[in-house]
Amino acid sequence: MHTQVRPTRRVTRPLTTAVAAIAVAAGLTALAGCSTGGADSQGADSADSAGSAVETPATAQGGDQSGAGGEALRDTGTTVPDAPAVLPAVQDRKLARQANIALTVADVDAAAAKVRAIAAAARGMVLSEAISSEPESPDLGGFSTITISVPTGALDETLDRLAAVGEVHSRNTSTEDVTAQYVDTESRVKTMQASVERVRALMGEATRLADIVSLEAELSRRQADLESLQTQLAALEDAVELAPIEVALSTDETALEDRDDDTGFLAGLAAGWDAFTTSVTVLLTALGALLPFAVLAALVGVPLVVWLRRRGTRPVPAVVHPEPPSA
């Protein structure tokens, strides 16, 4: 029996060893596959990270250049949403704009006609116009000042069209924010309207004549205040919706330069001299108008005064009182 058991043990050990070797080999193969897959995924993640790292600076650079309209955005294909033309905070403001432009032209009359046509095309109107020309003296040329009013939204476009009429000597635009004044006036109008309605309601309930008269006077006063505020509000609305443009036309650029040079010591001296001469002229005119009346007064008044003085210097006769009789 021992001879049969020993061979069985000898055969069993090699089989066990072979099975263990196969299991170890299979485990090593599985570990190798896992490590290879992990390495591949790690490599892919590294490649993706590297790609994103490369794209990020390009995108950031393109974003920095978008404000200047650079070519980097078109090269990388990055799209940027369009910004609004006007911010809501700016769009809600009440802005009163005005402008002036000075042009040197070859013919003042023809240029003035073009200015009127431009104002009509912009749905505006001509507020004032003054044309001065010297046909007999071509060297003096001509000068014209035209003030037009156009919708505020068409101000810049109108200035561009006016600039094409002649050679631009000067061009200025100014903007005044009247939002606070507009809001305050609008609020006062609403308050005054409510006040007028309350007074009218009280008049409907009043029965005494004295109360009715007092309420009518108060209603008239508040109605006048309301109309004044409504006029101010309408003026502000016109200032916001319409923009005046003063157009100066001249065939001589020197005339425009003299017109622009209205500040400084010399300009102040000239303005003061003009005011002085104007005052002297008015005074002399008044004296000339009063001189005939002064002569007439002298002719009548002097003899009358002399006569009154002579009459006042006559001696007054003395009054003699009789003495009483002695006892």
Which tags fit this structure?
2 domains, disordered N terminus, 9 helices, alpha+beta, 5 strands, 5-stranded mixed sheet, 327 residues, single chain, 65% helix
Would you write up a description of this structure?
With 327 residues, the protein is α+β, with helices and mostly antiparallel strands. The protein has two domains: 1-58; 87-262, no CATH class. 65% of the residues lie in helices and 15% in strands. The chain is built from nine helices and five strands; from the N terminus they run H-H-H-E-H-E-E-H-E-H-H-E-H-H. It has helices at 2-66, 72-76, 88-91, 108-121, 155-163, 179-205, 209-241, 253-260, 265-312, and strands at 95-104, 125-133, 142-151, 167-177, 242-250. It has a five-stranded mixed β-sheet. Strand 2 (125-133) and strand 3 form a beta hairpin. The N and C termini lie far apart (220 Å). Mean pLDDT is 74; it is low at 1-19 and 31-80.
Number of helices: 9
Structural class: alpha+beta
**Sheet bearing the most strands, described?**
5 strands, mixed
The largest sheet has its strands arranged as 2-3-5-1-4
Quantity of strands, as a count: 5
Helix content: 55-70%
Instruction: Name the beta content range.
Output: 5-15%
Mean model confidence by pLDDT? 74
Rg estimate, integer Å? 51 Å
Q: Termini, distance in Å? A: 220 Å
Give the overall shape: flat
Enumerate the spans where pLDDT stays under 50 for 5 or more consecutive residues: 1-19, 31-80
Total tally of structural domains: 2
- Reading the helices and strands in chain order gives HHHEHEEHEHHEHH
